[in-house]
Amino acid sequence: MANERLRGALAAHALTVDAVAARTGVDPKTVQRWLAGRTPHARHRWAVASLVREDEAYLWPAIASNRQVPNTVAHEFLTLYSHRADVPPALWRTLFNQVRQDLNILVYAAVFLPEQQLDLLDLLSERAATGCTVRIALGDPSSPKLLERGAEEKFGAGIVSRAENALRHYAPLHNCPGIEIRVHATTLYNSIYRFDDVMLVNTHVWGLSAFAAPVLHLRRLVTGGLFDTFAQSFEAVWTTATPAYPR
To answer: Domains along the chain?
Structure first.
């Protein structure tokens, strides 16, 4: 059965099939299948829902029956680290090694990652070579939001230089198949690190640098749970981000 809600939402925002395909990273034929009634992969649902400013359950009512019961949220929550600095380096390494399908990073800079994982570029290239989709969204150094964040955490323009360093660090990967790097200019409420169905969410606290703020360790159990809330946030920012290179 054709998805008339989706068709109507696209029409309301003057979005063509080709435009939706470009914004979600799929073939136009795939978008046509969605319009014909096929339910997209979760990350594509979130991206489309963000584009048309609708809840995914409105566009695809069938998924509503799969949403979690309240008690499931507690089981999605694995650990709380008081500070990002408390997350064991071995955990980061394990997550990078074990990811197989979706590796998503949403940050302003997170220069601690290449400093901590010295072979990070090789590791990301290896993951992509095995079929993993790697998407990295970094802060745009020219964005006023970075200056605002710098003032809030009392680092001033330092965060801009860190964002520039992050872009330089990942530059060798910009032509690597399976890896896409974008820059965003959004107010970042959380830094998000997704490794398939496991996620680390570094909350942002006014007046503190991210390394001093708490980190939530989550796992995905059901559609519409706590994990999906943050995953959908990533998709929303990703649709607004632009290619990082050449810069």
So the answer is: 4-64 (1.10.260.40), 72-243 (3.30.870.10)
